[in-house]
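Feature request, filed as a ticket because there's no other form

It would be nice if the structure record came with a short human-readable summary line next to the tokens. Right now we just get the raw output. Example of a typical job, pasted below so the devs can see what we mean:
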Amino acid sequence: MKSRDWVKFFFSSLLVGAAAAIASGFILNWDQQAGAFAEFQVDEIFASLIWFIGVGLMFSVISQMGFFAYLTLHRFGMGIFGSVWNAVQLLLIAFVLFDLVYFRYQIFGDSGSVLPYIWPAAGFFAASLITAYLKQRDTNKGAFIPALFFMFVGTAIEWFPALRENDPNWLYFMLISLLCCNAYQLIMLPRFSRSSRRKIGQQKTAQG
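Raw output as currently delivered:
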């Protein structure tokens, strides 16, 4: 990919992170923000907007680091495990799904209902499945398991700081931003790459 297209991909991913953080931030904190909007407190609204943008950009950088780390891991995985790499990824997906429910309940559950720990994990997994399906439809059937692994396991690792704090607003705020960034990168990188190759081919044709 041409360096110019890498820069476009990087900054477009930053914009996705900022937009997702703004939307989810205002929605999740609406009980705190509603008064500022009702009274049209521009300074408070603007301060919240800047904070959401800053955090969203940070989440996007974390997401991009995780994405390119996974691309490297995927290459190593295929080289080491060969044809069973997909099975290894499915095993890790199942392990992380179990951990997101069981260990969070053991640490934060206080012997209450386990349902509050099942629903976030189930919703997170469903969003990962949908993104993996879209990735498969956009490329080929072989992309489904790697896409699901990145969207679920990769995002869960990036999500760890919020998981450790266990604050509901912070949990969903970070998860939504990371999911949007990761889904965007997963689906859009091949398109940026194809566009870049097409431009290089056109330049070679013009020079030849």
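Something like this underneath would help us a lot:
The longest helix spans residues 42-81.
The chain has a mean pLDDT of 87.
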